[in-house]
Amino acid sequence: MSTTTYRVSGMTCGHCESSVREEISALEGVSEVTAKASSGLVTVVSRAPLDEAAVRAAVDEAGYELVGRTES
Question: Mind telling me which PROSITE patterns this protein's record contains (predicted)?
Fold first, then answer.
């Protein structure tokens, strides 16, 4: 399993968190997504490391901006 945390800008509420979770959860191999608007952090658990471009596209589809990965 792979766990990666991303910084996403623009999330301000529970609806924002839900939108981001829904889009990222649709990516193949994703088993869990936790989004926190208060910190702007999204943690993704997947079978293997995800292609960052795919995560960026999912976040864009939700209406937000992927700033990048955070350091562990």
Answer: HMA_2
